[in-house]
Amino acid sequence: MKLESRLQALRGLMAERNYDALIIPRADEHLGEYIPEHNERLRWVSGFTGSAGMVIVLSGQAAIFVDGRYTVQVRQQVPSDLFQYHHLRDEPPLEWLAQSQAAGTRVAVDPRLHNLQWYRQAQTLLGAAGISLCPDTDNLVDHCWLDRPAPKVEPALLLDESYSGESSSSKRHRIGETLVQSAADAALIFAPDSVSWLLNVRGRDVPCMPVLQSRALLWSDGSLDLFVHPGRVPEGMNSHCGADVRVHPADAADTFLTELGGKRVLADPVTANAWSQLLLEQGGASLVPAADPVLLPKACKNPVEIAGARAAHIRDAVAVINFLVWLDAEQSAGRRHDEATLADQLLAMRSSGRHFQGGSFDTISAAGSNAAMCHYNHNNTVPATLPDNSVYLVDSGGQYIDGTTDITRTVAIGDPGADIRHMFTLVLKGHIALDQARFPKGTTGTHLDVLARQFLWSEGFDYDHGTGHGVGVFLSVHEGPQSISKAWSGVPLQPGMILSNEPGYYRDGAFGIRCENLVTVVEVPGPLETPMYGFDVLTLVPFDRRLLDVSLLTADEIRWLDDYHRLVADTLTPLLEGPEGAWLERATQPLA
Amino acid sequence: MKLESRLQALRGLMAERNYDALIIPRADEHLGEYIPEHNERLRWVSGFTGSAGMVIVLSGQAAIFVDGRYTVQVRQQVPSDLFQYHHLRDEPPLEWLAQSQAAGTRVAVDPRLHNLQWYRQAQTLLGAAGISLCPDTDNLVDHCWLDRPAPKVEPALLLDESYSGESSSSKRHRIGETLVQSAADAALIFAPDSVSWLLNVRGRDVPCMPVLQSRALLWSDGSLDLFVHPGRVPEGMNSHCGADVRVHPADAADTFLTELGGKRVLADPVTANAWSQLLLEQGGASLVPAADPVLLPKACKNPVEIAGARAAHIRDAVAVINFLVWLDAEQSAGRRHDEATLADQLLAMRSSGRHFQGGSFDTISAAGSNAAMCHYNHNNTVPATLPDNSVYLVDSGGQYIDGTTDITRTVAIGDPGADIRHMFTLVLKGHIALDQARFPKGTTGTHLDVLARQFLWSEGFDYDHGTGHGVGVFLSVHEGPQSISKAWSGVPLQPGMILSNEPGYYRDGAFGIRCENLVTVVEVPGPLETPMYGFDVLTLVPFDRRLLDVSLLTADEIRWLDDYHRLVADTLTPLLEGPEGAWLERATQPLA
Questions:
Q1: How many whole angstroms separate alpha carbon A486 and alpha carbon A448?
Q2: What is the CATH number of domain A300-587?
Q3: ipTM of the complex
Q4: Contact B443 A486 (CB under 8 A)
Q5: What is the pLDDT averaged over residues B570-585?
Q6: Could you tell me which residue ranges the Creatinase N-terminal domain spans (chains A, B) (predicted)?
Q7: Class of B157-298 per CATH?
Q8: Which residues on chain A are in Cβ contact (under 8 Å) with B531?
Q9: Residue B1 — very low, low, confident or very high, per pLDDT cuts 50/70/90?
Q10: Within a 10 A sphere around the Cβ of B510, how many other Cβ atoms?
Q11: Pairing relationship of beta strands B132-135 and A106-109 according to DSSP bridges
Q12: Which residue, among B468, B590, B465, has the nearest Cα to B519 in the 3D structure?
């Protein structure tokens, strides 16, 4: 009933403004993966809590579009009498609109909530069907959402150079210089994590994403105009960033962008919203479409950032090991907890660590067959209790002032049996092959992806997700441009990049397995005829030996596992005592 | 002096027609890899015999552009007082022209000898520098080349359905139907191997490429207009191809293409020449730019073609083994031959085989350090004699009525030593890993390429060429769209495709190694959770066990090699007697 009245309010306003349809994406105006409470417009209108989706409200009906991860969840959360369900990829919303609606239909869209690439595509697709796309930044949902929470506004954190390793001034000047090559006078730096990295600041207003909600214009001389809510500007911001950073209120951005007539402004049509680029065009600026120039420099971490990430991973490992020790003890005592209790316990272990700022994403705490859903979230359903003789999959991470972590371990519950051990070992063999890879300059993640899949493929198995994503340092746990996946990446891997190595295997209705470490790209010591890069591991938590079928491992693989466990033991033994110390000693015993 | 007078004649004609520059590519009007003698215009003007390059003649100077394979050869063949040398990739001809020539310069180009993609790029690049591109199909070289050989014109061969496995009518109708999806009325089928496959005919007029020099227009109803020299049309062509194939003289094509006003004609901007598409546009047809619709159907061989390829590979293996036996005997007798004698001997062995039609490419017969040049051709230099204690690399293939072969074997000469054995074994390990790969639908050659390189990479080595190319059936030994390489291929591997598996290693000035078999993509017998494809080997010649460092091989790799050699022995023992039979028995003894 509550949703029904929300839809009614929206339809009333749509009629008032003469719209036949309204598009509501999940994104907010920063287009990030995580969004603050007050911008959860899709959830408000539909009840759906997934991380991706789109709603289209028409005068007589409404439709929600979600991808394969959420086809079950959407039916549980969104009432079928109010919404039709559609598949986001198989029946894309724009195609659906173009095919189902008559010519002359007027479709309202808030161009602040979409990137330019999508917006142009919408114009073309709907235009071809005679449908008008009506940009409207006076968001209809915001008018109808009467109990909308106030935005969280806290002063940003100024990140000391002992964590960032490079001053904002140095970053801005070296990236500003690259703009000259693109013949651009300035670049729109739209992604909050790009702005945050560039200014060496972090925010506290978005769950899991420690970014300053802001946008900026970086000039080729290295100076920068920052647009940010004044309540987020901390004391000392000016002396921290440098005198050539000019701070403006967030709502001054629109006018500013229309006053750049004659300038050539680089903007990323994928990461920057359509509205900002429409404003630039309106004001007479020339758009230079190109990738956000901060992406690649941010992805290649400097030695100080890598050292920070290493330190954060050691603290994170202590927390995860404490959790695993506790879990084993509870198992031995015959106590089987549910997924929510387990996730809470893990968070509690992390929270006591130095520099901990919160989770880096929503923990996937999945028991038995729930682990077969790669993006399972126990908060969207009744948390399951650990079943006997199966596995528990826990994918979690933390934000620390010096680094971001992301780790998945699969844990034996009772005796998981030969089949699960067989599959776990195939997954681990892939993880080892990727970790050991050496590769020349120019190699991308797509070239290496098969190394992680080959043993599964060889027996007729696969997993339906990428093998690795980029990770920031006290920034987004999912960052580009680096990745390891079947989908073509034209970006070569470079020293300092941090990536996950996370092959898995999922058997519907039965169990799920994933082995995930973070690694950083390093130069292999030479001299070599062809210089090679390789990976150096950051994550330091033992793999569960109870899940191994050692007969499937080669001597090289056994040596890799023993070396890894020795590294874990050498690093963490000084930090763990009593039962935790004893557990670590057992868990890292060599196989050979 | 001879070249000088040729250049003088060209410059006279350029002045007459008011051109400041003339572009001479290596390609002829069919844009194929191999070209007949009478179209060797680049060789005529420069003396250069390489397989790729471009000459630009200016009034006061001339320049030749070749790639890294030919930087040595070009200096031997092309006089430096007449030509500047440039690198085809590092200093591309068009960029060089745009930068070195003044605005107003008039550049003559024969649009029959370039694809449309290149032609458009030339217009843009030169246009931006104020330079005019002047299309001229009255080729200047042809006017000055007084002793130009007459074209070779022989009647085509009609390929029986017992070789092709599918009638021309069936091929034309099923591909015609796909044109409807592209909303095209017809498709320009420009590549001679596409036309030859579509009509089940083969030609004899181009070295190594058994294609009918012709082009065609395929209509969506499956009917076809063929443009071909009347002297190439054999008796019975009409009844062989079907009544809906209309044969026109080759020189009727230009007029025909200008009479398609209002039609939508698919043309491949990469494989079809610019001229044909300019004519279509002139006549009012709409161009639909898309890949040649014959490429993919031709690449996926039917069971009859695969059976033919297998039979051809057995005969080819007999020839290659006879050669290897002879070579070993000559070695034992202390006779060291030169590269030309060896290549001739191998050709003689092949020539006696049933259905043999000629080589499928110029044999690479490379002794010792010459093998370090991946595209070495002994005809371009003084053939070297086999050195002691090294390797001989021979990369060769044959055209047979039922198939096309391409094989590289590296052979021990004397005692090659531990270093060469180590490198050979790393290369062979990569070959084995790729051969054994299993992969799901959607996998492309780029995903698999690393499997062949991983063991070299692991020790700091690599090779600077692709791992595999597509191969036709009694057609081009290099065909697309399938390939296995670092360069991104978006074309998934499909059952019936034939590819080479040819990793290598090259040490400058020392030695070269390559292990090449042809394989075909097959479905792996199930049931499997995820259906998988794999490779089935076509080539059946032992690898040289004297080059192995067995200590580097895993048990799986030893099993692979023993299984392969058992397959070779089982297939070929009945066909080899006396010393050849005894050699085969020794060469295929199991390692384990």
A1: 9
A2: 3.90.230.10
A3: 0.92
A4: yes
A5: 97
A6: 6-129
A7: alpha beta
A8: 460
A9: low
A10: 15
A11: unpaired
A12: B468
